[in-house]
Amino acid sequence: MASSETFNAEGGCSCGEVRFRITSAPIFTHGCHCTDCQRLSGGAFAINAMIETDRVEVLAGTPKSVPVSTPSGKGQNIMRCPTCNTALWSHYGGAGDKLAFVRAGTLDDTSLIEPDIHIFTRSKQPWVILPEGKPAVEVYYDAKEMFPAEGLARMGALRG
User: Fold this and answer.
1) Where are the domains of the chain?
2) What separation in angstroms does the CA of 17 have from each of 46, 81, 121?
3) I need a labelling partner for 102 at 20 to 30 A (CA). Which of 24, 26, 109, 144 fits?
4) For strand 76-80 and strand 87-92, is the pairing parallel, antiparallel, or unpaired?
5) pLDDT of 50 over the 90 cut
6) Which CATH number describes the domain made up of 9-159?
7) What is the pLDDT of residues 147-160, one digit of tens each?
């Protein structure tokens, strides 16, 4: 992946009403295998690119915020196209509105982002084979142990 200074990717919903651009590489990207991500994505797992919300520029349309409960009880707001309901990114209750989790599958070039880590592998489908050498955890992880220095600095800047 390109450095955060040179990274730029566009994406959008299925019907084309909502278009967006991310203006830097993600802080960190999860391949999430939790049963909620499986249900909400309709797939075996979701790829969520964690990025500062101010680095997600809406180019067309206005996403609608749809509140969804989570097992943690903190909830999430899924930003969806108001017409086709494609999930574009989420704001999780524990992270707040300053951090977006962009659905990597909504990017025009879906090959630009791959998971840095696979999480909630305890509920991974048994036929999904994880790549060798890629971190994987049964539930979640300690960011201080897993994030690169730049990611830790960016998260620190969000906290103020």
Assistant:
1) 9-159
2) 22, 7, 34
3) 144
4) antiparallel
5) yes
6) 3.90.1590.10
7) 999 999 999 998 87
